[in-house]
Write a structure and sequence with these properties.
alpha+beta; 3-stranded antiparallel beta sheet; Arc Repressor Mutant, subunit A; single chain; 263 residues; 4-stranded antiparallel beta sheet; 11% strand; 9 helices; 7 strands
């Protein structure tokens, strides 16, 4: 059985994949820590494994180039892409959020603010935030701790994004067999996680519905990422007939999802 099939089907269930967004995920996760440049051959091999055709990839790269995100270079028969200065500037804050460490336990204190604020979970016309990140608001006493009403109050798109990530994590209970498959699986995992955490506030495990598995999504993403990475990094290290090995990864990859990453 192809272990990537459920992830690819889940990606396609949302409609036609945004290939330019997948390319940005590849740059943030695999290219920037390895010198910032990737050959068109390697990018095509990776995205081809998740069902993206060469013509569609070329169209996406042309769009990203026209929009000032990437620039290309040709050396003989080999072409490659790198992020522009604008693209690199956008990656810093996003990277910190994507690879932030999971909370070590339940949120000890919640704060309710009677208005909508960025990063807050919607509740009773206001926003619920962990007490350690809320600037102002009413601290909730133990008897008033939030419960199932938070999940029920999330926008439908937010709940669906969480459920699809959980499905991907269940499908990745075992590591794929080959380095390319592991790299493709990591790409799809990070892509879905990136879109969730950059768009929506995080829902801690204690506020997830009882039937969701896994409930600790952030922790499960961190564990799954660590399990996929040795084989995925092996593929990036490899040279093949039509593509050279990529430069060695810098130290940032080893500390992703750890407290060191956010210092």
């Amino acid at each position: 059985m192809d272990r990537l099939s459920p992830l690819i089907a889940n990606l396609n269930a949302e409609g036609r994949p945004r290939i330019w967004s997948l390319v940005i995920t590849v740059f943030g996760d695999m290219v920037q820590p390895r010198g910032g440049r990737i050959s068109t051959a390697r990018l095509g091999r990776l995205l081809g494994r998740v069902g993206i055709e060469g013509g569609a990839l070329r169209t996406a790269l042309s769009r990203l180039s026209a929009d000032g995100w990437v620039t290309s270079r040709r050396e003989g028969r080999t072409s490659s892409y790198t992020l522009t200065a604008r693209g690199q500037k956008e990656f810093g804050p996003a990277t910190l959020r994507i690879y932030a460490p999971p909370r070590p336990g339940p949120v000890p204190v919640w704060t309710f603010t009677p208005r909508e604020v960025p990063g807050g979970l919607p509740l009773a016309g206001g926003s619920l935030l962990p007490g350690d990140v809320a600037a102002k608001g009413v601290r909730l006493a133990g008897a008033l701790q939030p419960g199932p009403e938070v999940w029920e109050g999330l926008p439908p798109d937010h709940r669906l994004a969480i459920e699809r990530l959980a499905a991907d994590l269940r499908s990745l209970s075992e590591v794929p067999d080959t380095p390319l498959d592991a790299a493709a699986a990591r790409l799809l995992l990070v892509h879905r996680w990136r879109r969730l955490v950059l768009r929506w506030p995080e829902v801690p495990m204690e506020l997830m519905p009882a039937g969701l598995e896994p409930r600790d999504l952030h922790g499960a993403v961190a564990v799954t990422y660590a399990r996929l990475s040795p084989l995925a990094e092996n593929w990036l290290d490899r040279a093949e007939a039509d593509m050279a090995a990529m430069p060695k990864a810098d130290a940032s990859v080893a500390i992703r999802f750890t407290p060191l990453q956010s210092t």
